[in-house]
Amino acid sequence: MADPNYFRFVHVGWAILIGSGLAVLTWSHYDPDGIPWIFGPLGQLGTYLGNTYPTLIRNMFYGTIVIHVAEALYSIKVCGDKHLSTSATIKWCLQTFVFGFASFLRLNKVKNVKSN
């Protein structure tokens, strides 16, 4: 039996990897030449792709948003199926919107909460 308030943050490695990727993708879409040097080769790739293939970057950017929204909405359904509390559901939904499948992997490990 799981705690109805069960919530775990994604692994820090996933958070850094996905957060960096989303940041570079967003910068590549809106300001490819403004990507900070701290992103190193990933930032250089983002600058190149953003300047050379803006349509590709635009499609990737909006596609990523659509996919993450769909994952977040599905996480609400999964939380309901597992009988998690409203506060836990909101946390899982927001985290899944930002980190996508990395959060969803943790959510799927939750066992169902027994109803009283």
Describe the structure.
The chain has 5 helices and no strands. It has 116 residues and is mainly alpha-helical. α2 crosses α3 (54-81). The mean pLDDT is 92.
Fold topology:
Blueprint: H1 12-30, H2 40-52, H3 54-81, H4 86-99, H5 101-108
Helix pairs in contact: 1-2, 1-3, 2-3, 3-4, 3-5, 4-5
Give a brief rundown of this model.
Helix content is 71%, strand content 0%. It has helices spanning 12-30, 40-52, 54-81, 86-99, 101-108.
Helical fraction equals: over 70%
Whole-number mean pLDDT: 92
The number of strands is: 0
The rough form would be described as elongated
How many helical stretches? Answer: 5
Poorly predicted regions: none
The radius of gyration is: 17 Å
Largest sheet: none
Secondary-structure element pattern, one letter each: HHHHH
| Structural category | mainly alpha
Portion in strands: under 5%
Main features:
mainly alpha, 116 residues, 71% helix, elongated
